[in-house]
Give the backbone structure.
Amino acid sequence: MKLTANNKTLDLSTPKIMGILNFTPDSFSDSGKFFQLDKALFQVETMLNQGASIIDIGGESTRPMAAEEVTLEEELERVVPLVEAVRKRFDCWISVDSSKAQVMQEAAKVGMDLINDIRALQEPDALQTAVRLALPVCIMHMQGQPRTMQLNPHYDDVVADVLKFMQQRTEQCLASGIKKENLIWDPGFCFGKSVQHNYCLLQQFSVFCEQGYPVLAGISRKSMIGAVLDKPVEQRTVGSVAAALIAAMKGASILRVHDVGETADALKIWLATKNA
């Protein structure tokens, strides 16, 4: 499998690393420490040197119980200049983590390659905009909305329920004009799921990878890691790398992570073993 955008091709025959750059003052993991442009660009360079193929830029914190939702103006101000700056300096894939049609549109003008939408193009005009832009797009499953999604998540069968949503949403996207080769799936770890739900999804991750679409795993530093290890965010690196590696072994095409170098090392050891 491969992705194509803006005269670039990303070969997904081995898992690729997506480095997370949260350009928000209240992101749960890096506490907004990359909230200045020069620092952000330094972090991008570091992640690319460590083995990231994609940089995922987000201007809205979607952690559970996040502060008030970010306005369109704020998100545009955060995301667009950063996409433009990264595009000018680096030859990498740029993903934008947004659900807002206008952010997608403006980011595409300055060099975005991939739309990463936790709301699966369900916000107003998002689907039509994605069709028009004709870029790869990652659609994610979430039960509820970020601020309230972790209060009491319920499923009859979490794997079957999430798979059904992904299949139905995919059909709607294809019917609207999204190309099959542009779709990426994300089962949405920790977005409206209990700890048990998340580990069921990880255990059965290959079910999603057998449906003909590249699948993204975003588990890095999340509460499902913290719950098992009983460790704060900044001490979840080893747990996060372990989870990413499990996802890769089960067929993940893209690993969305904070700890790029450590994840890259783990992947190299697994691939050396696999190809021995």
